[in-house]
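Lecture notes, continued. The same structure-token format from the folding unit now serves as the input rather than the output. Read the line below as a description of shape only.
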């Protein structure tokens, strides 16, 4: 599971977590900005997925509205969370393996950084009505 207890991310950085098995149709992603320099430095957490036998970085899970991305603002405090429910239609469908891409993009200034904590994701199955 992705569990990052406190990693420093500088302006322009990006990294992927390790792959972990999907545990359900839905996922709750939680992150916390612990501290940092630069209130304009925003962090985007994207969800990627792939089949176990597929090589590469996987496919970004996207509902067409950016609804699967979790944004941690440079001036935020407290825990941010995003609840996402997978559908069976690609690319909005979680496959066997899941991981996150964390990136700061072009926001902020040179020398800006943030210490981020990523909590283990919570998986759950969709309720049928």
């Amino acid at each position: 599971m992705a569990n990052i207890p406190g990693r420093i991310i500088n302006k322009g950085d990006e990294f992927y977590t390790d792959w972990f098995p999907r545990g359900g149709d839905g996922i709750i992603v939680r992150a916390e900005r612990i501290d940092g320099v630069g209130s304009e430095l925003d962090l985007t957490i994207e969800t990627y997925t792939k089949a176990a036998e597929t090589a590469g970085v996987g496919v970004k899970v996207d509902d067409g509205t950016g609804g699967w991305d979790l944004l941690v603002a440079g001036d935020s405090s407290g825990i941010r969370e995003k609840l996402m429910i997978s559908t069976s239609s690609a690319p909005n469908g979680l496959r066997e393996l899941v991981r996150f891409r964390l990136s700061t993009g072009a926001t902020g200034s040179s020398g800006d950084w943030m210490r981020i904590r990523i909590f283990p994701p919570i998986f759950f199955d969709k309720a049928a009505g």
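Point for the exam: The chain has no helices and eleven strands.
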